[in-house]
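3.2 Worked example (two chains)
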Amino acid sequence: MINVGITYDLKSDYISMGFSEQDAAEFDLEETISGIENALIENGYKTERIGNIRHLLTALSSGKRWDIVFNICEGVNGIGREAQVPALLDVYDIPYTFSDVLVNSLTLHKGMTKRVIRDLGIATAAFKIIESINDITKIDIPFPLFLKPVAEGSGKGISDDSLVTNYAQLKSVCSKLLYEYRQPVLVEEFLSGREFTVGIVGTGNSARTVGLMEVIFRENVKTKIYSYSSKNNYLDLIDYTLPDNETTALCYECALNAWKGLGCRDGGRIDIRFDKRGIANFIEVNPLAGLNPIHSDLPILSKMASGIKYNQLIGMIMDSAKTRIKNGKQ
């Protein structure tokens, strides 16, 4: 029986350490860890909970080893925080699920990721990276613009104020984000079209889409920005729906090209938004997508679009990891 260790950042641990709800937004609930562990057991694996990177360090130092690690650690410090567990496991030659050190480091930085996407010839909104407030004088993209921290997830740093229509707003929001998040700000051309998220399972030429869903705000919602707040209150504000076949095909093509081009592995999500010409544009990729059985986008869209149940999805992710490891692509 294959022995699977599970690495994760438990939200309640960080809350007890003094983290705010927003600071801990990317970390996982106990129900997520239980869901993953139960799914692995149902798929025939022997499991062991490891915990975060500090727990992993302790376990490795004491001689613990696993056949493979199911890694969903988001990390805490630095621009390479999502790559810390993969790097440590590489040192000990222990295989793991999901993307490697390079991909997890690159894709946390939205601006660097867009540079690669642009070089691949995949449509993405025009953008600038603001390192300091003086950099806003270099912005030559016409308004309206959309602003967000360059290295956050779960909608952190995105609010109704993220959509700016003039220079005064641009300067104000940039200043606020630079101060609050202590990292560069991504300034993008605002894409006015429909928004989607696409789920992908697999690696390289074996990667395939498992579904997508459109993000549609309800009629009574005044501000239709997919923000930290709206994501946390999606049951009251948003409907997730399945688009028509033509739209689906456009989203799938963009998402798969980006997934393969970036070198992502095993499973994750890519967010897409259409521009005013109806062209599907890459927004960002999540190579460590949320896996809460009830509330996370990847399990939701997999079941809604393709009838893939949660345990089956976890099994597909593991199958991808085992196949590439067997083929020498650890």
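3.2.1 Second chain
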Amino acid sequence: LAESPAKAGLLWAGTDDGKLWVTEDGGANWTDLTAGLPAPARNQWINRVEASAHHPAVAYLVVSAFRTGNYAPLVYRTADRGRTWQSIAGDLPAGDPARVVREDPRNPDLLYAGTETSLWVSLNQGRNWVKFGGLPPVLVDDIRVHPRDHDLVIATHGRSVYIIDDLRAVQGFTASVIGSEAHLFDPRPATGYYPLEGWADWEGSSLFRGANPPVGAILTYWVKEPMPDGVSFAIADSAGTPVANLKGQGFPGLNRVVWDLKPTPDLLIPYGGGGAKFVRPGTYTITFSAGGVSQTRKLAVTVAPGIETR
């Protein structure tokens, strides 16, 4: 059962024996769409229905047919409330059945797919797919985009839960960005805090504990061609005073650098005692330099209550 985020009262229902219905009045009346399903989906398990967040007539369908010997990824899209369906399996591997598809809440062209072995992403509504996230081979049962933080949360069968922090770069990965020499994506607001260590009453020989996200600002950038000298970030406060200088690798593709929200050593006067304190809350300017590209972005910084700043 899937509820449309785009229209109240629009619901989709699918069953494990290939039935599909839609209602536009909260369930008072249902329309049977089964006869219009693509031939490979008929009488098969309707594994997932994904209602679009961007248009009420758009939905996505994932069908599991491997129980009858069909191991193809059966993934479809409708743009007319289920009257017709088009395959969006694209270049997903032929022998890797799909389990879930999610549409990005910010970018309607951006789709995420979980299969029996991998996590995939498409930037063009399913015409092409690329493997995503660096996961080990694992069945991806479910996918959610966190509505506040826009992290990608992946539930697997046998390897627990994974989180990809901050999808802003993927959500904004447009054709113009791909064609550029280098690009710095807008960073999400960052908070300075000291995380508490996890605890377990019995750990044995293994530690079953997830990793916290990095403390600080995640700076994600794109590089088209190798840059042997890397890239650099110059960070200044609202008065224009430099507070941090960072370096990043110049590998082709998406890269990340994390600023811990503290001054870098080259801008500190050495003294005895503890380490650097967090910078003050406020808006900071990041100047990104990569080859012949120079870009600036704004970063909002807050600090958790009770923590002393510079």
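3.3 Remarks
The first helix runs from residue 168 to 171.
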